[in-house]
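COMPLEX REQUEST
Ligand: S-adenosylmethionine
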Amino acid sequence: MKHRNPLFPYVYRLGMPVFDRLFYRRYRREAMSHATGRLLMVGVGPGTDLLFVPDAVTSVAAVEPDAAMRRMAGALARRHGVDVDVVNGVGESIPFPDNSFDSVHVGLVLCSVDDVAATLNEIRRVLAPGGRLVVLEHVRGDGLMGRFQDLIAGPWSWLASGCEPNRRIVDAIAAAGFDVEGLRSIRRTLVPPPCTPHLLGAATIRR
Ligand SMILES: C[S@@+](CC[C@H](N)C(=O)[O-])C[C@H]1O[C@@H](n2cnc3c(N)ncnc32)[C@H](O)[C@@H]1O
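STATUS: Structure written out below.
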C-alpha cells in the first residue's frame, strides 16, 4: 500500500457503522446477493460485508493487507459465526491458485488498491470459468463532481489511506475483459462527496 494512514482502520471502524446504518447497508446487501459458490473478498476491511453473505455461497476466503483490519474482520466473523479465512495479501498478487473461486467481491476497495488493472487481472486469474466479479464501489462522477474529485484526490488519498475518489472504475473493469452490462450506476445517494456516485452489481468474464 502506497499511502498508509495508520489511524485509518480505527477511524473507519468507528465511523463506518454510522454510514452503514444510514445508507450503505442496503447497497452492501444488494451487491452481496450476486455472490455464489466459492467466494473471495478482496480488501475485506473490518468485515462488514461478511454479514451479508447469501446462502448461495459455499465458502468464504478474504484477502486484506492491513493487520488491524484483518483482526477486526476476524473478530466480526467469530462474533457472527461466519467461517472465513482472512489472509494477508493484496489484490495485485492474490495468494490463491488459478480458477479457485466462483465469485470475487470488491467492496469500496478498487479506489484504494495501488494498481487497479493488476488487481483486476489477478481477479480474472483466480475466477473459475463462468465466475463473476461482485461490485460495490464509489467512482468518479461526471461534470462538476468529477472535477471536484480530481482536485481533492491528492489530499483525500493521504487522509483516507490511498483512496482516490476519481477513479474510472467501470472503464477499468471493462478494460480487464469483463462484461459490465450487469453493473449499474447509482447516481444519487446520501453518501457525501467525494465518495459518490456508486457502481453496483456483477460483471462476468467476457468470452
Ligand atoms: C475503504 S476500505 C473498505 C473496506 C471494506 N471492503 C468495506 O467495504 O468496508 C478499503 C480496504 O482496502 C484495503 N486495501 C488497500 N490496498 C489494498 C490492496 N492493494 N489490495 C487489497 N486490499 C487493499 C484496505 O486495507 C482497506 O481494508
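REMARKS: DSSP finds five helices and eight strands in the chain. The radius of gyration is 16 Å.
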